[in-house]
Amino acid sequence: MSHSSEIKCPHCGQWTTWTGKVHETCQQCNGVLDPQRFSQAAEKQNKKVENPRKADFFPPNAKDGPVTRELKGLVNAMGWIVFYSEVAFYCAVIGVVVIIGFIAG
Ligand SMILES: [Zn+2]
Q1: Taking the model in full, what pTM does it have?
Q2: Distance between first and last Cα of the chain
């Protein structure tokens, strides 16, 4: 009895054998067959050396000029402000709902 099975490659759409290994690649295009699982495993490995700047919406590129870099920094800062505002808004809504629940109850 074999553990290998045929799965459809998410990259090229070809059928290829997959034995359930995390880092298994497609026989046709060499793409990783289970990118989600692969990225999770890679994430665990990279967690210690992870650069917090990687969480930016537009990561700085070595080819970027000073103006592009400045713009990206600005857009990233704006993105985080919007993100935290949204989180704060939802927390406020939940807080109000809880308070109303206490009053009504
Ligand atoms: Zn493929």
Answers
A1: 0.34
A2: 61
Query: How many Cβ atoms from other residues are within 10 Å of residue 21's Cβ?
Result: 13
Cα 100 to ligand 1 centroid, rounded to whole Å:
54
Each residue's pLDDT tens digit in the chain (105 positions)?
Answer: 556 788 888 889 999 888 877 778 888 999 888 777 777 777 777 666 555 555 667 777 778 888 888 888 888 888 889 999 999 999 999 999 999 999 887
- Which residues, chain by chain, have CB under 5 Å from ion ligand 1? 9, 11-12, 26, 28-29, 31
Phi-psi bin for 20: left (phi > 0), alpha (psi -120 to 50), beta?
left
Say how many Å lie between the CA of residue 15 and the centre of ligand 1.
8
Cα 12 to ligand 1 centre (Å): 4
CA of 6 to the centre of ligand 1 (A): 12
